[in-house]
Amino acid sequence: MLNSGERIDQLYADDIQIIQSPEVFSFSLDAVLLANFPRIPKRGTIVDLCAGNGAVGLFLSRKTQAHIYQIELQDRLADMARRSIQLNHLEEQMTMYTLDLKDSFTKIKHDSVDLLVCNPPYFRDLPTNEKNPNPHLALARHEIATSLEEVIAVSSKLLKMNGHFALIHRPDRFLDILELMKKYRIAPKRIRFVHPKKEKDANVLLVEGIKDGKTDGFKINPSLIVYDDDNHYTTEIRQMLYGK
Question: How much is the pTM?
Answer without folding.
Answer: 0.89
